[in-house]
Specification:
Layout lengths: L5 E3 L5 E3 L3 H20 L17 H29 L4 E2 L1 H22 L17 H20 L1
Antiparallel strand pairs: 1-2, 2-3
Length: about 150
């Protein structure tokens, strides 16, 4: 479906061969998610980024108070790095790891919005559906994530 665009270099770097349109799309995704985290922290599509840790409401509240800011800051840093390095042809292993985290988070948010589950029927995908652009983005991010994992 897609060509191989991410490879591990002999020196441990990760080499990117992405079209400018792909790079622009990655910048846009990173910026939109960073903005969503900052401006709409209770958006339901973010729930998979912050899963429930405790059944006990009091313990869950305490957990969120202790960890939420740190989790948000880590995600924002990954999105910032993705946006800042999207134009590069080489990533360090640490930068590639941040890309992987950002792409995974983007997939989680988009998958939640689209109600994607393991039994989603990709073979029955209708390109004329109003959700087609978002589903195509989800498929692209999934492919990108797979390539990053293989390269790392």
């Amino acid at each position: 479906m897609f060509r191989r665009s991410i490879r591990r270099g002999p020196d441990g770097t990760v080499r990117l061969d992405l079209a400018e349109e792909e790079r622009g799309l990655l910048r846009q995704v990173a910026e939109e998610l960073r903005e969503l985290l900052r401006e709409e922290p209770e958006d339901p599509s973010l729930r998979r980024l912050f899963p429930t840790a405790h059944d006990n409401p009091s313990l869950e509240r305490d957990y969120r108070e202790l960890t939420r800011d740190q989790l948000v800051t880590g995600r924002e840093k990954s999105f910032d790095l993705l946006a800042e390095t999207a134009g590069r042809d080489l990533l360090t292993s640490d930068e590639a790891d941040a890309w992987l985290r950002a792409v995974n988070d983007a997939r989680l948010v988009l998958g939640t919005r689209l109600d994607i589950s393991e039994d989603f029927d990709w073979d029955g995908f209708d390109e004329t559906t109003p959700r087609a652009p978002e589903l195509a983005l989800y498929a692209y991010l999934s492919w990108l994530q797979e390539q990053l994992v293989e390269a790392m």
